[in-house]
Amino acid sequence: MTAVDERMTTDATEIFENLEVPEGYKAELLWGDIVMMAGPDWVHNDIIERVVDQIPRARWHRKQTQDIAIPQEASEPQPDLVVLERGAFEGPGRLVPVAAVTLLVEVVSKSSVDRDYGEKRALYAAGGVPLYLIIDPMEAQCVLLSKPSGSGPEADYEVDVATKFGRPVPLEPLGVELDTTEFETLPPVKRHRRP
Hints:
This protein is α+β, with helices and mostly antiparallel strands. The chain has three helices and twelve strands; from the N terminus they run H-E-E-H-E-E-E-E-E-H-E-E-E-E-E. The chain has helices spanning 3-18, 42-54, 113-126; strands at 25-30, 33-38, 60-63, 67-69, 81-85, 95-97, 103-107, 131-136, 141-149, 156-164, 169-171, 176-178. Strands 3-5-7-8-9-10 form a six-stranded mixed sheet. A two-stranded antiparallel sheet has the order 1-2. It has a two-stranded parallel ribbon with strand order 4-6. Helix 3 links the parallel strand 7 and strand 8 (131-136). The protein is globular, with a radius of gyration of 16 Å. The two termini are 28 Å apart.
């Protein structure tokens, strides 16, 4: 990394940490870029609620809108759902270290489809997140990614299993078989970047 790149990353991190996000929006730091987006819709929130309800609270923290620290990648994403074993991280602070995370969940929207399937897939793999679940109401499917490998924007998951809504998604490390029969759908949207 050059001195210019380091300065730009530091500047973006400092700006991000002091950013005042307007009500109804959320902001994330992805690969040194600040990304703002509108809050989620009803279908999105309903799906997250249904996932949270199926993950046992006694063993797992199930946090929404929780920032994750991936320092080696100059990123502080805010996944739709962060799942970590109780005792892996107890706070305090805004950032959960990526090493404490077991599962990250993103629910795809029209504005996030490319990021969720592309940038965040690579970012979470680079951070070593064991399981990344993409729930896509526009395609009526869940994509469970596991076995992260690589670093930087070229990182990826070695295992990629797509499951249509209505069929169970096994989340073995959590001891859960995710019931997707009540997940709602949205009209399809075309992706523009890597699948």
